[in-house]
Design goal:
Layout lengths: L2 H7 L19 H10 L4 H15 L12
Helix pairs in contact: 1-3, 2-3
Length: about 70
Amino acid sequence: MNPEHLEALVATEMPFGKYKGRLIADLPGHYLNWFAREGFPPGRLGQLIALMHELDHNGLSGLLTPLRK
């Protein structure tokens, strides 16, 4: 887990879909689970969503609290 990736979770907005404009760190668990089942988008966005899914699934979302500004 790269610290820059964690910081990106609280700085990057979802660029499309129902949750467009919401921070990746604030995406609901059911939406993250949907991506896990259906496939993550390609590139950096997919990597960030996959990382957020892992954090959410394992109850580690609290790690992002100190990074929020």
